[in-house]
Amino acid sequence: MKEPVIIARDLIKTYIMGEMEVHALRGLSLEIYRGEVVAIMGPSGSGKSTLMNTLGCLDQPTSGEYILDGEMVADLSEDELADIRNRKVGFIFQSFNLLPRSTALANVELPLRYSGAKSGRKEKARLSLESVGLGDRINHRPTELSGGQQQRVAIARALVNDPAIVMADEPTGNLDSKVGQEIMDLLLNLNKERGTTLVIITHDPRVAAQAQRTIHIHDGRVREEEAIV
User: Fold this and answer.
1) I want to staple 220 with a disulfide (CB 3.0 to 4.6 A). Which of 6, 40, 47, 123 is the partner?
2) In 85-105, which positions are buried (b, 16+ CB within 10 angstroms) versus exposed (e)?
3) Average pLDDT, stretch 120-146?
4) CA end-to-end span of the chain, whole Å?
5) Which residues of 55-65 are buried (b: 16+ CB within 10 A; e: fewer)?
6) For the chain, which residues make up each domain, given as ranges?
7) Sheet holding 197-201, edge to edge
8) pLDDT value of position 228
9) pLDDT greater than 90 at residue 195
10) Which CATH architecture has domain 35-59+78-227?
């Protein structure tokens, strides 16, 4: 029986903007299972980004239930939310979000520093870079790396704490089609080899077609799900 790593029930997120209420999530429910590759798609304004922020513990729902890897998340304090985010979530962003003056090794080491790890940080970061094919680039800074290599550094950083889930927000969006497919192949191979649960936010149907399941979001709700056979 599949084990859910994400359980979201009746998530509502309402933003107050002056005298207006913006309903970003409207009772959204979903489950994502351990080891799955899931794509989340939807038009602009559908609630994708709000859902990613909620599932990634960057924000909390106005109401509803969210369980991540067995832990109740919806009612945590900011400090508790930061702790679970560091322990259980790896992020990959379209714009890479690397520190420009730091080496690849130092960038990957950051989550280990935040987690309070005292020893073995550099070795673990080095092994993570080797796992994405950058063992010979550990002392290079982002400006000395191609876009594809920078995204590989970001992937190594996302994986270094062995998170319960990896959230990838348009991970191929800033890359040409050839390099973008290389990044997708890398992510899918890591999922196959390590069982990494991968949630991909994307506008690109070619990316979504490589997931095991696609969840379509519309007006803050799950509109439909498609299993890729």
Assistant:
1) 47
2) bbbbbbbbbbebebeeeebbb
3) 95
4) 19
5) bbbbbbbeebe
6) 35-59+78-227
7) 89-93, 165-169, 197-201, 37-41, 213-218, 221-227
8) 56
9) yes
10) 3-Layer(aba) Sandwich (3.40)
